[in-house]
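Researcher: Go.
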Amino acid sequence: MLVADRMGTTTTYALYHLQPRGRLFVEPGTQVYEGMLCGENSRPADLDVNVTREKKLTNIRAAGADEALRLVPIRALNLEQALGFIDHDELVEITPTSMRLRKKILTASRRPKKVME
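Model: Structure:
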């Protein structure tokens, strides 16, 4: 899983660079917190990622460097799909306004690491 490693708002820049790592569950502008699942990793291990990273701005501009970033559509899960998707160390969090997937233990340093086989 792709797991958010900090609290904040997702950015298009960060999500664009995470697309090769797996399928995303969140859109730009989504509020996230540490331990929230943001996507499905293409590998079996969990990966803590920064989905709030912003592009560094400089005075120097290159021709063609500021092109529009295009994101692949997110994988939207309904309640039944989310319950079937989660692993033993994950939860589905439901509020009146949203449904989120998260780890049982939110802090990355306290979470047990999976060993790749």
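Model: Helices lie at 12-18, 79-85.
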